[in-house]
From TrEMBL:
UniProt-recorded name of the protein: FAD-dependent monooxygenase
A Pfam family matched in the record: FAD_binding_3
A Gene Ontology molecular function term of the record: monooxygenase activity
Presence of the UniProt keyword Oxidoreductase in the record: yes
Species per Swiss-Prot/TrEMBL record: Archangium lansingense
Alphabetic keyword roster: Monooxygenase, Oxidoreductase
Residue ranges of coiled coil: none
PANTHER family associated with the record: OXIDOREDUCTASE-RELATED, POSSIBLE OXIDOREDUCTASE
Length: 401
């Protein structure tokens, strides 16, 4: 039996970090979270939360506080910039009856359940050193420059795609980031595109570039530009609006793109980034473990990043609770159990990327065929996989894939 509460440092107050913090707390651990930002973020972009995600959210006890915004009686339209439109299948029409939420909705629900977890904002790790039975982490507070070193039984790196924990404990980013040669820009619209009801989705998909408008039940949609390029560095050298207008030109934009660009010009709050998967042989090194995008970023194209962040954090707590005296065994089992699902989602993301943004004229034509088939067949509920079934079962039951 462990004689004292084990201590963990979680780096990152996103979905994976908070899910891990709640999972560890449920396992009886004392948890501290450090977050680089000066305060908790809100808002974000559209997220489709699938069965694995909401089973994990239920298991973490947060589902009751999750504000979902799945639009009722929603339609999705495939449109051209010339103004043609036809009905198609939307992101939330996929099997499994996903919920539509903002990223911030999931984070807000998780935050309410942190309990006595200590959260330190404006703080980052600067060094991680393995010691017997744990790791000593040096952290730096950005406002004062103050540094402190503390020992923890476990360090959880949940600090996203360009994880500092991964760099400190595993190696440089380029060793693990696998570029998908694509860029995305996501932001919230103030107003739906004219002549479309607020709960309708829109897809304007051309070879190598697309615009998606994701609807909600109770607020205006979010927009996503997604385009392919091999020249990632150049995309960051000019203002984002200039780069996007050039990418979606030189043809006339048409009414829909004009409306979305006009809204983009008015917002300061957007995410513009390259798309990368994270590929690692192992997500643990000594007493440091990576969770969420830091460990396995499966990208937005998989539609499962948030769900797997929730599942990963929840399962981490479960396995540490089942193996209180053997942290290494718990981490090893955790990794073995999750890895097959993450591999599968990373493969699926490569296919889905062609649905989001076809890589050329041929895949654009093939995509149209796939979408038409989808339109004719009413999607059935997916049979839940072993991970989803496990998450729906009582605690203290061993997970066997
Ligand atoms: C446009 C878009 C659409 C998406 N759609 C979906 C979808 O439909 N379904 C789905 O399941 N997933 C979707 N995803 C993926 C999903 O949003 C992510 O997988 C998930 O949010 C990742 O959570 P995370 O906690 O691992 O990382 P992050 O969200 O990146 O959080 C990391 C946290 O760590 C903090 N941090 C970073 N560096 C440091 C540091 N050095 N020190 C301290 N703190 C630090 C950050 O400030 C942040 O708070 C989408 C992603 C995008 C970009």
């Amino acid at each position: 039996m462990a004689t004292h509460a084990r201590s963990a440092l979680v780096v990152g107050l996103g979905i994976a970090g908070m899910a891990s913090a709640i999972g560890l707390r449920k396992a009886g651990w004392r948890v501290t979270v450090i977050e680089r930002a000066p305060q908790r973020r809100s808002g974000g972009y559209f997220i489709g939360l699938f069965g694995t995600g909401y089973s994990a959210a239920k298991r973490l006890g947060v589902m009751g506080d999750l504000h979902t915004r799945t639009p009722r009686n929603s339609k999705t339209w495939e449109v051209t910039r010339g103004g043609n439109r036809h009905k198609s299948v939307g992101f939330l029409d996929q099997p499994g009856e996903p919920h539509g939420v903002l990223r911030g909705d999931i984070e807000a629900a998780l935050f309410q359940h942190l309990g006595d977890v200590e959260v330190r904002y404006g703080t980052e790790p600067t060094a991680i050193v393995d010691v017997k039975g744990g790791a000593v982490v040096t952290t730096r507070k950005s406002s004062t420059g103050e540094e402190r070193s503390e020992q923890f039984d476990l360090v959880v790196g949940a600090d996203g795609l360009r994880s500092t924990v991964r760099r400190l404990a595993f190696g440089p980013h380029d060793q693990f980031l696998k570029p998908l040669h694509a860029m995305i820009c996501a932001f919230q619209l103030d107003e739906q595109v004219p002549y479309f009801p607020e709960n309708n989705g829109i897809m304007l998909v051309e070879p190598r570039r697309s615009l998606w408008v994701f609807p909600f039940e109770d607020r205006p949609p979010t927009a996503l530009f997604s385009y392919r390029t091999r020249d990632i560095d150049t995309q960051f050298r000019e203002p984002t609006g200039t780069v996007l207008r050039r990418t979606y030109g030189p043809e006339p934009l048409g009414d829909i793109l004009e409306h979305v660009f006009a809204q983009f010009d008015r917002t300061e709050n957007f995410l513009f980034d390259s798309v990368n998967q994270v590929s690692m042989r192992s997500w643990r090194s000594g007493r440091t473990v990576l969770v969420g995008d830091a460990a396995w970023c499966i990208t937005l194209y998989s539609g499962m990043g948030a769900s797997m962040g929730l599942a990963g954090g929840s399962l981490l707590g479960d396995l540490l609770a089942l193996n209180p005296n053997d942290i290494d065994a718990a981490l090893s089992t955790w990794e073995d159990r999750l890895r097959p699902y993450l591999h599968q989602h990373q493969r699926t993301a490569l296919f889905n990327a062609q649905i989001f943004t076809p890589s050329g004229p041929l895949t654009h034509v093939l995509r149209s065929g796939v979408m038409r088939l989808g339109d004719r067949k009413k999607p059935a509920d997916t049979p839940p996989n072993a991970l989803t079934r496990y998450l729906a079962r009582p605690r203290n039951v061993e997970f066997v894939a």
